[in-house]
Design a protein that fits this description.
Mean pLDDT of chain A: 83
Number of strands of chain B: 0
Helix content of chain B: 55-70%
Radius of gyration of chain B: 21 Å
Low-confidence stretches of chain A: none
Largest sheet of chain A: 3 strands, antiparallel
Order of helices and strands of chain B: HHHHH
Structural class of chain A: mainly alpha
Number of strands of chain A: 3
CATH class of the largest domain in chain A: Alpha Beta
Distance between the termini of chain B: 65 Å
Distance between the termini of chain A: 23 Å
Largest interface: A-B, 39 and 48 residues
Strand content of chain A: 5-15%
Number of helices of chain B: 5
CATH architecture of the largest domain in chain A: 2-Layer Sandwich
Number of domains of chain B: 2
Oligomer: heterodimer
Largest sheet of chain B: none
Chain lengths: 165, 130
Amino acid sequence: MRLLSRIFPHPYLTGLLTLVWLLLVNSFSLNSLLFGFLLGIVIPFLTRPYWPDRPELRHPLKIAGYILIAIWDIIVANVTVARIVLFKRNADRHPAWICIPMELRSPEAITVLAGTITLTPGTVSADLSAEGHFLLVHCLDAPDPEAVRDEIKDRYERRLMEIFE
Amino acid sequence: MEQVLDLLITFFLVIGGVFGLVGSFGLIKLNDPMSRLHAPTKATTLGVGGVLIASMLHAYAYEGHLSWHELLITLFLFLTAPITANFIAKAHIHRHETPGTLPLAGGDRKWATHDIPPEDQEAASPADRG
């Protein structure tokens, strides 16, 4: 077991790198599968000192659901933000900083949460608090900052808690 | 069949173009730096997404094979766009915001960008010392 986790410090990363290599080659063959797998072993092995802890995924299958929800939200929010940019006067817009208390503790989960917040238009994650318990988010137009905070916590953080912790 | 695919390709190209244009227009129209930061993160999602879907459909319709590079472009954009946005936001906080102009960092003392160790205080700009 010890030996296995020395060779595969990040098994999910090994799988992902193999898949990315196959997509890069753009066709499937045994050659590229083997070479992708080789890269998938060498790269996590060489970068292990920079990423010592293996993230715990409790429900890896829920990742697909999370991605689908995020994509749907990106589409809806794009339309909303396009309308704000085109039709709302700057004077009527209420940009706001909001502070989101986080229950997530694993660095990987916080990274995914911050990335999702930035990708869904209308919100950009700007900074983390000194101890890493709060996230600073800038909203393009938030007449009601509490509602934005509650939606982020309920929609994304709750799901990430199920996946990661 | 080909005509339907053509219509779909056109549709996604137009969608991508419109959202790219709105994103660029936002850069001019929005009036403070943090709001302008919203424009580029938006153009990369639906604007580029539309063009990439059109490209995949085109490869399928006219070259007769599925092209996976577009999925990779999407993946790499989704990895890099938030990091760039975060760096720009942090630079903005570093240069133009003080702990007083941001909401309180809850139970923690400060936001990470303002949390400068004492030995680096000399080099920091006056705005960060607050």
